[in-house]
Amino acid sequence: MSATALFLASLLSLAAAGPAFQNFVVQESLSGAPQGFAKVGPAADSTPINLRIALASSNFAGLEKALYDVSTPSSANYGNHLSKDEVNAFLAPSDDAVAAVQAWLASHDLVATKSNGAGDWLSVTVPVSKANEMLSAKYETFEHVASGKTYARTLSYALPVEVADHVAAIHPASTFNNPESLRPVLSAPKPASGISIDATPSSCATTITPACLQSLYGIPTTKATESSNTIAVSGFIEQYANKADLTSFLKKFRTDISSSTTFTLQTLDGGSDPQTASKAGVEANLDIQYTVGVATGVPVFFVSVGENFQDGDLEGFLDIVNFLSDEDDVPQVMTTSYGENETDMSKALAFKLCEAYAAFGARGTSVLFASGDGGVEGGQAQSCTKYQAAFPAGCPFLTAVGSVHGISPETASTFSSGGFSNYWGVADYQSSAVSAFLTAQGTTNKGLFNASGRGYPDVSAQGENVQIVSGGSTGGVDGTSCSSPIFASVIGLINDKLIAAGNSPLGFLNPWLYANPSMLNDVTTGSNPGCGAKGFTARAGWDPVTGLGTPNYAKMLAAAGL
């Protein structure tokens, strides 16, 4: 008998001899569909659903401890990043969990496939009738009114008591992701305003180019030397990076390097990167032009995620981190300029995705996300009476980047999303910084936010009227989408120096950042109003508008031991 046949036979015997799976425990329950969704009617029994089953990791607490151990400068293990096998051993579900879940699936004549190397995500496609049976659910068709898109969802689902403790989340089930929330966090391009190629310091007060960033932050123009040091740029929702636009950008704004300098394409989920001018994406071009054009000589990979998601309505966020984490050699930096509101994702799903970022960081990758453009209204502007949190910016295992503008002084951008998570508590590495801010703030905005939550952003960078070339035209864009690739480029250049000196890359940044706040340019003016209130105000030290501040390359290099 083959190994596969033996495995299937063992599952069937487990199902036959095992429990009847008749006693269910409710996992999630909603009183009604969220605002913006309308019930259409029952979902057809034959409609296929690709269920993603997130299993509880056997030792995430151990992974978290290991992550901080290799990421905290005072630790003896600082920089000793984990291997793929070591990380997967922490993430993998227990043997009991696998046996129980597979037996439950086998009792329905189903066998799931692993969705990632660690095996804590499983995938199985079933018709609605089967999903209703195995989850004690009632899947119905719901329409997102604004977009007209329809989804099969259930307001409640349950799991057998024998497997409930082993399953962290099921998706899609009772999470209603807003299809319009995952989008680039930046504004439409503004026409160019006669900016000079050299971008003198005076012009940098209103218009940002690579030369401005080099002047403001001390970013070097010398070429990086280490080919093993890479930056991964995330691409979603059919945003494509155009090589002709990159060439034009370099000819205009980086005349000191070859205009043929380009990026490498990676694809997943049917992703692509068509090169016609009409397909040029403002977001993708921005992200590529301010990594290739600022992190001089650092190899850049554009990772284009297509629409054939393996993670359902997680829109490829989980797919890309699993894809890159499963590589033997991970990128040293990943920057993502997309996000949504924390409330658009269930807490259980958000926690599992955040775990994936922790695993990625433990491998030695600095994970950076734009904090969002909704001020205190979350990842995107919305109607609200209490401050909203952005996602994934509130995850404590990544570095969230806010926006500033101006040069003397730099000032918080009003749209810079910042605040406190409603899902995660304040992280240990930032506890003193957050406490100092809350003490200084006093009773201002009391009751409008979760004062015990993880504070974000962690850092910031320029994010207004940043010049790009898209579709052959030069113009300026605003958004934290500008800030994340800029900060990522600084980290990429520091990693180059570290690797050249025989050291490890920085990896998960936050413990290092909060341990060395003086290496950043503190921003003390500006605010991010919203929800009909004043929002937060930038002040000395960390604040939930600009974080710890903007890059100072020389001081950061020194803090890295170089």
From TrEMBL:
Alphabetized GO MF terms: metal ion binding; serine-type endopeptidase activity; tripeptidyl-peptidase activity
Domain of life of the native organism: Eukaryota
All residue ranges annotated as the Peptidase S53 domain in the record: 207-562
Principal localisation: secreted
Cofactor: Ca(2+)
GO biological process entries: proteolysis
Binding, Ca(2+): D522, V523, G541, D543
Gene3D superfamilies according to UniProt: Peptidase S8/S53 domain (3.40.50.200)
Protein's name in the database: tripeptidyl-peptidase II
Organism from which the protein derives: Mycena venus
